[in-house]
Input
Amino acid sequence: MAKEIKLACNVIEQVEAICDKYGNQPGELINVLHEAQSLHGYLPEEMQRIIARKLHIPVSKVYGVVTFYSFFTMTPKGKHPISVCLGTACYVRGSEGLLEEIKRVLNIEVGETTPDGKFSLDCLRCVGACGLAPVVTIGDKVYGRLQPKDIKKILDEVAAND
Amino acid sequence: MITLTIDRHVVVVPANTTILEAAKTVSVEIPTLCHIDLEGTCVKSNPASCRLCVVEVEGRGNLMPACATQCRQGMVVHTSSPRVLRARKTVAELILSDHPNDCLTCSKCSDCELQRLVRRLNCRVMPYNDGEHSLRKNEVTDAIVRDMNKCIYCRRCESVCNEVQSVGALGAVGRGFTTTIAPAFGKMLGETNCTYCGQCVAVCPVGALTERDYAEELIRDITSPDKIVIAQTAPAVRYALGEEFGLKPGASVTGKMVTALKDMGFDYVFDTDFGADMTIMEEGAEILDRLKKFLAGDKNVKLPIMTSCCPAWVNFFEHEYPDLREYPSTAKSPAQMFGAVAKTYWADKMGIPRDKLVVVSVMPCLAKKYECSRDEFKVNGNPDVDYSITTRELAALIRRSNINFDSLPDSDYDKPLGESTGAAAIFGTTGGVMEAALRTVYEEYMGKQLPRIEFDQVRGLEGFREATIDLDGFELKVCVVHTLSNARMVMDKLRAGELNYHVVEVMACPGGCIGGAGQPYHHGDSSVLRARQRAAYAEDAGKHLRKSHENPDIQKLYAEFLGKPLGEKAHHLLHTHYFDKTIH
Output
């Protein structure tokens, strides 16, 4: 679990405003969580407690929904979020090997963030660049036709350019 | 009305009746597991998730869950066709596929609804037996033990915690095979707003949620030559304990219970009913005190005054309504009053040093286990009540002590802490504390005898009841609630300044202590609760003395030791204070 970091006042206000926008209706929980996550990147405990209070539902319900849907995350994303495409075209062209190599180099699992906060790792299904398969995205940049041996160099470059 | 056929029976039922309910009317008992409906109370959970109640409906392709399918005109239902029996068995086998196989040593053995079902469905092999998981964190609190590896995801505990109690400490976490029922954020129950009401334990069909067992501590103390061990038994235990020995619900076994406790090795057996009479002396005086101030125009007096006997309710308002914590009476619960007096007045009389005296309470309750551990109920770290065991634990201990309960003769409680009145006898039912208080408050306020002892208006099982009592022109408005969702409704109104009562009684469990989480399992049968309630009122009606202030040993205790109610000594020993325990 992410280490508890106090939310900034303006973030709290923004989350409360999202709840208000949806009329603080318990039935709007998923929409509220969706917007809160796009605002803040992830859904820390404090944010879930604010949402529970505003929507008048137990925090266990909020947490239940957050842990049920893989879209929601309680882990802050890295500065450079990495996504490995496991769609059909990328998969048959060896994206699983890329994923294993990234896990090895960064020493993190899927859904985790490196301790220095630089990289986080996720998987997705198709970025619409099947001609470049296998594909990895880092931030907004798409890297195509990769082989596991390319990974270390790319990650070093991204880290060096910070 | 709707006419349908269930097996060989023609059934006529009102619209909106489920097949499960309709079948019951013609003695067809369809098996259920996730479903629970404690009729007449708000305890209900019907997620229709286990699929053990599936039936075949002619003209419908799929099997239908009887608990969630409404009857239709002309429906033809088969509840035990070969296809149904096959499907049910497969469902049970799949539930068993990841359920631990340790029934012989499980604390729920022989009281487990899954075990009964498996026997009923004649499952003789476990075809899917590779799914067992043992990854869940277990938790042992002062009151509740969670072993989520045994959970079958019926969601009863979640419904009870969220809807019935409105606490929301438990919920489903994760998805698929990793799902577990747990508090949010990987916390332990003890770190949440859990009140230890234990209703999750009361409805758990398997051994996933059980009480913390104090049998070993008790046996250690009873067999220790340096300890004097005394018991106090709560009002609601005596007419539920018999169920554990095959007697009908509501059978009163007070005399046998006292004999059993003495045979087990307790040095003295006393009665929490004595503590209940003491509670009425203190709480009654507090009610009168606040009413007199109110009538004298005091604007700051906190009304309504609320009862404070129920430890789960105390936890609830400390967590959720700490801003209103000056409203509940400061009177300790009967069990804690008893402990405080036993370890001072009685121990001094007997010349027993505090550290040699062990006070054990036998309670229908799990929150009482936690209550014992509260620091404010300790003197130099030594608790007034050392620990609390449930009705169920007492039954188990009686069996372990090789006592044939049925054939025991009756014994009387020891004196002086064993004498009690009818007012104390009804403490264990919703409405009982209110009625007991009203009997004393009326006579003290009016200075004359009650024309009729019974206050029928406050009796019943409805979640919210109210009454107006005429006190010589002054209309005393009272209300009685049970379950914490009803308590929340009352507290929300109080916070909004919309609660117009003078006295409010709150009990956390459905029906009050008669439905307490430490009682023999009711398995969703509300007739059990009703029988216990009738037994409480019958015991009251059969008592010679029925008002707490008429208890001669209580009068003696005040004359010899305590002084007067709300006096300095009484305040020190019999009253408590509450804390802001908001969970941030």
Remarks:
- The radius of gyration of chain A is 18 Å.
- Helices of chain A lie at 9-21, 29-40, 45-55, 59-68, 88-92, 95-106, 148-160.
- Strands of chain A lie at 80-85, 119-124, 136-138, 141-143.
